[in-house]
Specification:
41% helix, 5-stranded parallel sheet, 580 residues, alpha/beta
């Protein structure tokens, strides 16, 4: 039987039956397009077993630790340094976790194949072309590409000898990623003072996700008067050091085939910024006018993919600076599995949540900083529903670190839930409604699917926040348990949530809170029930939302997961300097 790894006609067999590794191997135009390909079977996706997924995540934490321990020692040796592991984890954690979980997912997709006699066609690549400039390029452009996925599968075939394979063509092909080099711009920047006299030397912050008014007041009060200065890593123009890359070896007592395999791929996936560009990045930062010895460094998002910020922060932490991270997403504190949350708390000295508090002493419940001083008032002629759509990558495992859809099967389920909901809404209401859509991943699979099913519905393609758009609509219908839902609750904007627990599983400590919202008709397990509620109460939504029971439940939920503040500057100061 012929094994097909990605959506490419050249990998199919015309003579024999084809076994697809997953749904992502079929035409990816939209959900409801019927494939015209030959007859085929689709392999069962290993993480459809949620117990296996939970156990695998625990296993991957251990693999991550082994890789990190080996990488930090090796990079110290290569660069002639003696930096502690925390320094390197601030730099590597986001890339390393993404690399680990995505590679393991593909390993298990192949390992769990039940068929004994399988062969596959593979393309041949020049491996060095998969080496990214930085973590952002790796996570946003490379790992979701068909070529990276196919290459990893082919490397697994070579490593395990489980699948018989033959190469397609006799030339090495140049891989194509989601973004080409010309259009992909990594966000490596640091904030420079507009005036050295005006800007604080004790506190350095950027990308805190504060609302506009709160950001302005904070900037004045804490003297964060700065402008952005970018560092273009593509200008470094330094040759690959394949000798150093090939010398990386894992030292461990653990006899684990996957560990051996992923260690062999590090040399082709480790971003240049941590090896070839390392000294150039540090020299570039020295030329930027940033505080030399800040007491506190803060961010809400730049710890993930802004390598310039991470280099600066890691170095200053060595010198005694405290590193504070503000929550930037709504899944934190509520979703069943959140490695992002785990690693951010780990690398930070203090983590400011939107209200929730776990057993970890580093977590400090603050407030939802994105909505401070904001107020949204519905227009008198508001009508219809605004339904935000979230685009998810179709490549498997992409969102396995955030408690979201992890493969195309999950994505199709997410789309079908929306379709079931919209089909149940009265036509007059739908004619006044719209999907709010913004494609940040160059996919269009979701919106094309919905356009196909509902060709007459309005598509609002905008970068504007849903809360700002909501004043024109009677009700917001959130389809993801994330930031948008919490912002609406925090701002007291009428909203409901279609909650599919299979796609967005809740942690045990949050179940009671969501059940409380179910009782007041804010959260729905069934899209059909949500549609029925809207049809029956469309002309009385204002009374429903203003009821005492609902407002009491909303306030109680918000205090836990989307906390407001009447004195944010005072609360922030207490959070920054408590215990001193």
């Amino acid at each position: 039987m012929n094994l097909v790894t990605i959506d490419n006609n050249r990998l199919w067999s015309k003579k024999n039956k084809n076994l697809l590794l997953g749904d992502w191997c079929i035409d990816n135009k939209h959900r409801y397009l019927k494939s015209k390909k030959n007859k085929y079977l689709i392999s069962e996706y290993h993480w459809n077993n949620k117990l296996k997924y939970q156990n695998d995540i625990k296993y991957l934490y251990k693999i991550y630790d082994i890789l990190l321990n080996n990488l930090y020692l090796y990079l110290n040796k290569v660069h002639g340094l003696n930096h502690p592991i925390r320094y390197w984890e601030i730099l590597l954690s986001k890339w390393l976790w993404t690399f680990t979980v995505m590679t393991y997912d593909r390993w298990e997709i192949v390992r769990t194949l039940n068929n004994k006699k399988l062969y596959a066609k593979i393309f041949c690549y020049e491996r060095k072309r998969f080496i990214p400039h930085d973590a952002f390029e790796f996570a946003r452009s490379i790992v979701s590409s068909d070529d990276w996925n196919h290459w990893v599968y082919s490397e697994i075939f070579r490593f395990t000898n489980k699948i018989t394979f033959s190469e397609v063509g006799n030339k090495k092909i140049i891989p194509k990623f989601i973004y080409n080099q010309e259009e992909f711009k990594s966000d490596n920047y640091l904030l420079n003072p507009i005036s050295t006299f005006l800007s604080s030397k004790k506190i350095f912050s950027q990308n805190l996700n504060f609302s506009k008014k709160f950001k302005a007041l904070y900037g004045i009060f804490y003297r964060q008067i700065r402008y952005s200065k970018k560092i273009n890593t593509q200008n470094f123009n330094i040759k690959l050091n394949m000798e150093a890359r090939n010398n990386f070896k894992i030292k461990t007592k653990k006899n684990d085939n996957f560990l051996k395999f992923i260690a062999s791929l590090v040399r082709f996936n480790l971003p240049k910024i941590y090896l070839e560009y390392y000294h150039s990045m540090n020299e570039s930062i020295k030329k930027i006018n940033v505080p030399k010895n800040p007491k506190i460094i803060m961010t809400s998002g730049d710890h993930a993919y802004n390598d310039a910020f991470k280099f600066y922060t890691a170095k200053k932490v060595l010198n005694g600076s405290k590193f504070f991270i503000f929550q930037h997403g709504g899944l934190y504190g509520t979703c069943e599995s959140s490695p992002n949350e785990k690693f951010e708390i780990k690398i930070a000295d203090r983590f400011f949540s939107w209200g929730w508090k776990e057993s970890n002493k580093k977590v400090y419940p603050l407030f939802l900083q994105k909505t401070i001083y904001q107020k949204i008032e519905k227009k008198n002629n508001a009508k219809g529903l605004i339904i935000p759509i979230t685009e998810y990558d179709l490549a498997p495992g992409t969102h396995s670190n955030a408690g979201q859809p992890t493969n195309k099967i999950d994505v199709n389920r997410y789309i079908d839930n929306i379709v079931s909901f919209v089909k149940g809404i009265d036509n007059k209401i739908i004619s006044e409604s719209g999907f709010k859509y913004l494609d940040n991943i160059k996919c269009n699979y979701h919106v094309d699917s919905l356009k196909y099913r509902f060709p007459n519905i309005k598509i609002v393609d905008t970068i504007k926040n849903t809360c700002l758009l909501s004043k024109n609509y009677k009700l917001t219908v959130e389809t993801v348990n994330s930031t948008g839902f919490l912002e609406s609750l925090n701002l007291n904007i009428p909203v409901i949530l279609l909650l599919d627990k299979k796609l967005f599983p809740l942690r045990k400590t949050a179940v009671k809170d969501f059940n409380m919202l179910k009782k007041v008709k804010i959260v729905y397990d069934s899209p059909e029930d949500a549609a029925k509620f809207i049809n029956e109460n469309y002309n009385h939504l204002k009374e429903w939302w203003g009821s005492k029971g609902l407002q009491k439940a909303r306030a109680k939920f918000c205090y836990r997961f989307a906390r407001p503040s009447t004195s944010p500057m005072k609360d922030l100061r207490k959070a920054l300097f408590y215990g001193k």
